[in-house]
Amino acid sequence: MNAPVVELEHVCRTYAHGSVNVLALKDVGLELRPAETWAVLGTSGSGKSTLLNILGCLDRLDSGSYRLHGQDITHMSDDALSEVRLRTFGFIFQSFNLLPQFNVLENIELPLFYLHLEPRQARERAQELAHRVGLYERRAHRPAELSGGQQQRVAIARALANDPEVILADEPTGNLDTATGRQILQVLMDQAAQGKTLVMVTHDHGLGRECSKRIELQDGSVAEYVHA
Question: What is the pLDDT of residue 77?
Answer without folding.
Answer: 95
